[in-house]
C-alpha cells in the first residue's frame, strides 16, 4: 500500500486543509518516499497546488503524469534522482531545488533550463539570463550545425522517391552520426549537447524533411545510449580530492602538418630484408592501417597550455555495464578511456576527443588506473551496477572514484612508498592488487560502499618481491591462484590462493631468459601482459628485446619449493627498437591477437600474431627461429608546439580497446594521442 493517502495529504498541507483541491502548499519531506509512492490519480486532485516539498526522500525519478498544472515551487533536495526530464510536465515552475542528488550533474541543470521556460531560480541561483541563452542562442547554434551536417553528409543519400525502409535506415545513421560529430560549448556539457542535438535532429527530420519518426527507439540505439550513461560531465566538488576542470581538451597551440596525417604503411624495423615466410605471414595478416584522430593536452599542471613536461603513464578503457563483459572481451569496453599522469586523472571520449571528466589531487603524481564494476545498494530495495575507477601513484594512496556520481568516495593508504601499478581481479570484483616501490605487492578487498558511501577495505595478502615490481598480470586460466610480476630484478611468480593460510609470501618462481649465449634471471622487466590464456609477452632491459613465452610449459605448478629458478620456454622474439631506454611498456589485444609497444621516437610498433598462436598452442609447438617484424609502425606525426618542434617524445604506454577500434598513446610530453583503426 502506498505511503501517501488523502488523510496524509490533508494533514501535511500548510496550513492544514479539509479538501485536496484547496491545498496550495504541501510538505512531504522526510517520509522515505519512493517513486512508486507518488500516485498520479491522487496527485491529479491537487489542482491548485503551487508549492511542493519532497526533500529528504528516496525518489530516483518523477512519474511522467503527476498533473500539477499550477505548480510554481518544487524542492527535491537530498533524494536519489537520476533524471530531470520528467519535470517538463510542470510548465509554470519558477523555483526548483535538487541539491545533494549525487547522480545529477551540470548537464541536468542545462536540461531543466531548456525544458522549463518560466524557471527563474535553480538551486537558489537566478538563472534567467543563462536560461535565455540556453533556449535561444545555444539552440540556434546547434540547429545550424545539425542542418549543415545533414547537407554535407546525408542530403545526397536520400533518393527523390524513397521507401519506408530507406527512411528508417538513413534516420538511424544520421542520428548516430550527428550526435557523435556535432560538438559545441565546453566539454563539461557534452552530454547535454548530445541530448539537444538528438532532439533537434529528430525535429529536423520530421518537420523540415517530412520524414516521420518512429516513436519506438530501436534496440541498437538504446544500447548505444546505455554505453554513454557514465559519460555525464561532472558538477564541481569543493574538495581537492576530485576536482573537475572545464576547459577545451584540444591542444590549441599545437599544429599537425596535414601531409603527415595520411595513412601509415607497414614499415619493418631495422631495415633488414624479410624472409619469404615472414612476408607471406604479414601479407595474410589483417590490415592494421590507422589514422590519428586527436592529440590532447589534458593533464597539464595548473591547466597550463605551456606544460609539455608532465609524463603520462597509464590508461584503461571503461567496461560497458550489463554487456556480459566477462564472457565476450570484444564488447567489454566503451569508447571512454581513463588516463593518468601528473596531478590528474582524465576520462576521454575517444571518438570526439572530449574530456568528459577530470579529477585532480594537487600533491599527487598518478602512475596507474584500473576499473572494476560493483553492484551497489542504491536504497533498501534496489541494486545497481556501477563502474568504479581506482587511481594510485607517488603518495602510496589508492583513490576510489564513483564515476557516474562524480564522487571520490574514499581512499586506501596502501603503501608508504609510491605505487607503480594496480589491477583488479577479473573474477573477484572487490579484489585489488597494488604493486609498490616498497618491494611488495598487496591484495586488498576494497569492499562495496553502501548508499552513504561507507565502505571497509581490508588487506588480504602481501607478496614479498626481491626488487621493485613494475608490471603485474594475473594468469588468465587461474587468476585466483597465480600472479606474474615484471620487476627491476627479473620476472617472478607468486601463489596467491587465499586458502593457503600465510598472509605474507615470498615468490614461488623466478624466470630466466636468454642472454647472449647463456640464461639469466637478472634483468629489468618493464613490460608484461598475456596475449592469450597461455602466451606471455614480456619486455626486458636488453635492447630491442620482446619475448613471447609459454606460461604452462615454463611453470610447473606441481614443482616443489619456493624461490626456484625456471627457464622461460621462448616461443618467439619480436623485432623492436634498439634503444636501451627503460619503462616504455607494452600491451596486448587478446581478442584480435595484437601486441603494441611504443618507442623512444614517438612511434607505435604493432604486431599481428593471430597466425602464430595456433602453432604455439600445440604441446610441441616450436619456437619461431627468426624475429617477428611488426605488421606496421605508426610514426608520430609532425607536430608544432607554439610554432616549434617538440622535444624528444617517448611513448610510455599504448593501449587499445578490446575490439581494437581505438589506440590510445601516452607520451612523455603531456600529449595523449588517439588513433582509430581505418
TrEMBL record:
Extent of the signal sequence: none
Feature: compositional bias, Acidic residues: 215-231
Compartment annotation: Chromosome, Centromere, Kinetochore; Chromosome, Telomere; Cytoplasm, Cytoskeleton, Microtubule organizing center, Centrosome; Nucleus
Domain Leucine-rich repeat and WD repeat-containing protein 1 LRR: 7-200
Keyword Coiled coil attributed: no
Start and end residues of each Leucine-rich repeat and WD repeat-containing protein 1 WD domain: 286-677
UniProt xrefs under Gene3D superfamilies: Ribonuclease Inhibitor, YVTN repeat-like/Quinoprotein amine dehydrogenase
Positions with biased composition (Basic residues): 259-276
Keywords annotated in UniProt: Centromere, Chromatin regulator, Chromosome, Cytoplasm, Cytoskeleton, DNA replication, Kinetochore, Leucine-rich repeat, Nucleus, Repeat, Telomere, WD repeat
GO CC aspect terms: centrosome; chromosome, telomeric region; kinetochore; nuclear origin of replication recognition complex
BP GO annotations: chromatin organization; DNA replication; establishment of protein localization to chromatin
The keyword Hydrolase appears for this protein: no
GO molecular function: chromatin binding
Main subcellular location of this protein, as a coarse class: nucleus
Swiss-Prot/TrEMBL WD repeat ranges: 412-446
Residue ranges, annotated region (Disordered): 215-244, 258-288
InterPro entries: Leu-rich_rpt, LRR_dom_sf, LRR_LRWD1_dom, LRWD1, WD40/YVTN_repeat-like_dom_sf, WD40_repeat_CS, WD40_repeat_dom_sf, WD40_rpt
Family classification: Belongs to the LRWD1 family.
Protein name from the UniProt record: Leucine-rich repeat and WD repeat-containing protein 1
Amino acid at each position: 500500500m502506498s505511503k501517501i493517502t488523502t488523510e496524509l495529504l490533508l494533514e501535511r498541507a500548510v496550513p492544514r486543509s479539509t479538501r485536496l483541491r484547496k491545498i496550495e502548499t504541501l510538505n512531504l519531506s522526510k517520509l522515505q518516499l519512493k517513486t512508486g509512492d507518488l500516485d498520479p490519480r491522487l496527485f491529479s486532485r491537487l489542482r491548485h497546488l503551487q508549492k511542493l516539498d519532497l526533500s529528504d526522500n528516496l525518489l530516483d525519478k518523477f512519474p511522467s503524469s503527476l498533473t500539477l498544472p499550477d505548480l510554481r515551487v518544487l524542492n527535491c533536495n537530498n533524494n536519489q534522482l537520476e533524471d530531470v526530464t520528467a519535470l517538463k510536465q510542470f510548465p509554470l515552475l519558477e523555483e526548483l531545488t535538487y541539491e545533494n542528488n549525487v547522480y545529477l550533474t551540470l548537464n541536468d541543470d542545462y536540461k531543466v533550463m531548456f525544458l522549463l521556460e518560466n524557471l527563474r531560480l535553480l538551486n537558489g541561483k537566478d538563472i534567467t539570463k543563462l536560461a535565455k541563452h540556453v533556449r535561444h542562442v545555444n539552440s540556434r547554434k546547434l540547429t545550424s550545425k545539425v542542418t549543415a551536417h545533414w547537407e554535407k553528409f546525408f542530403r545526397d543519400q536520400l533518393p527523390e522517391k524513397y521507401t519506408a525502409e530507406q527512411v528508417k535506415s538513413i534516420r538511424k545513421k544520421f542520428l548516430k552520426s550527428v550526435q557523435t560529430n556535432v560538438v559545441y560549448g565546453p566539454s563539461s556539457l557534452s552530454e547535454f549537447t548530445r541530448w539537444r542535438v538528438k532532439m533537434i535532429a529528430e525535429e529536423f527530420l520530421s518537420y523540415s524533411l517530412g520524414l516521420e519518426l518512429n516513436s519506438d527507439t530501436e534496440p541498437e540505439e538504446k544500447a548505444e545510449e546505455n554505453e554513454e550513461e557514465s559519460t555525464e560531465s561532472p558538477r564541481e566538488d569543493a574538495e581537492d580530492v576530485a576536482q573537475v576542470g572545464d576547459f577545451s581538451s584540444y591542444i590549441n597551440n599545437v599544429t599537425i602538418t596535414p601531409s603527415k596525417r595520411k595513412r601509415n604503411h607497414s614499415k619493418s624495423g631495422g631495415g633488414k630484408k624479410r624472409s619469404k615466410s615472414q612476408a607471406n605471414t604479414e601479407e595474410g595478416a589483417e590490415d592494421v592501417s590507422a589514422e590519428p584522430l586527436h592529440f590532447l593536452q589534458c593533464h597539464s599542471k595548473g591547466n597550463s597550455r605551456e606544460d609539455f613536461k608532465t609524463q603520462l603513464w597509464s590508461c584503461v578503457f571503461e567496461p560497458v555495464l550489463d554487456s556480459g563483459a566477462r564472457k565476450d572481451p570484444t564488447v567489454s569496453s566503451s569508447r571512454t578511456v581513463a588516463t593518468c599522469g601528473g596531478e590528474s586523472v582524465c576520462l576521454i571520449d575517444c571518438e570526439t576527443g572530449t574530456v568528459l571528466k577530470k579529477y585532480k589531487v594537487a600533491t599527487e603524481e598518478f602512475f596507474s588506473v584500473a576499473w572494476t564494476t560493483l553492484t551497489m545498494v542504491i536504497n533498501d530495495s534496489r541494486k545497481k551496477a556501477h563502474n568504479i575507477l581506482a587511481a594510485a601513484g607517488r603518495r602510496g594512496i589508492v583513490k576510489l572514484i564513483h564515476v557516474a556520481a562524480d564522487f571520490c568516495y574514499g581512499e586506501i593508504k596502501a603503501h608508504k612508498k609510491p605505487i607503480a601499478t594496480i589491477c583488479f581481479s577479473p573474477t573477484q570484483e572487490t579484489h585489488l592488487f597494488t604493486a609498490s616501490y616498497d618491494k611488495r605487492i598487496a591484495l586488498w578487498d576494497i569492499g562495496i560502499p553502501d548508499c552513504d558511501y561507507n565502505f571497509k577495505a581490508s588487506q588480504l595478502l602481501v607478496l614479498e618481491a626481491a626488487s621493485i615490481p613494475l608490471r603485474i598480470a594475473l594468469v588468465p586460466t587461474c587468476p585466483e591462484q597465480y600472479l606474474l610480476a615484471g620487476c627491476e630484478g627479473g620476472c617472478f611468480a607468486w601463489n596467491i590462493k587465499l586458502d593457503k593460510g600465510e598472509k605474507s609470501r615470498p615468490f614461488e618462481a623466478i624466470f630466466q631468459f636468454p642472454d647472449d649465449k647463456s640464461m639469466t634471471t637478472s634483468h629489468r622487466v618493464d613490460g608484461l601482459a598475456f596475449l592469450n590464456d597461455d602466451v606471455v609477452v614480456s619486455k626486458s632491459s636488453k635492447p630491442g628485446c620482446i619475448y613471447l613465452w609459454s606460461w604452462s610449459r615454463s611453470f610447473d605448478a606441481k614443482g616443489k619449493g619456493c624461490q626456484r629458478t625456471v627457464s622461460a620456454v621462448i616461443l618467439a622474439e619480436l623485432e623492436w627498437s634498439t634503444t636501451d631506454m627503460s619503462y616504455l611498456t607494452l600491451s596486448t589485444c587478446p581478442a584480435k591477437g595484437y601486441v603494441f609497444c611504443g618507442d623512444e621516437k614517438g612511434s607505435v610498433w604493432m604486431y599481428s600474431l593471430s597466425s602464430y598462436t595456433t602453432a604455439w598452442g600445440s604441446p610441441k609447438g616450436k619456437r619461431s627461429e627468426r624475429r617477428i617484424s611488426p605488421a606496421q609502425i605508426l610514426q608520430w606525426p609532425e607536430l608544432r608546439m607554439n610554432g616549434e618542434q617538440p622535444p624528444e617524445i617517448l611513448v610510455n604506454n599504448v593501449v587499445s580497446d578490446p575490439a581494437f577500434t581505438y589506440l590510445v598513446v601516452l607520451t612523455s610530453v603531456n600529449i595523449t594521442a588517439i588513433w582509430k583503426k581505418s
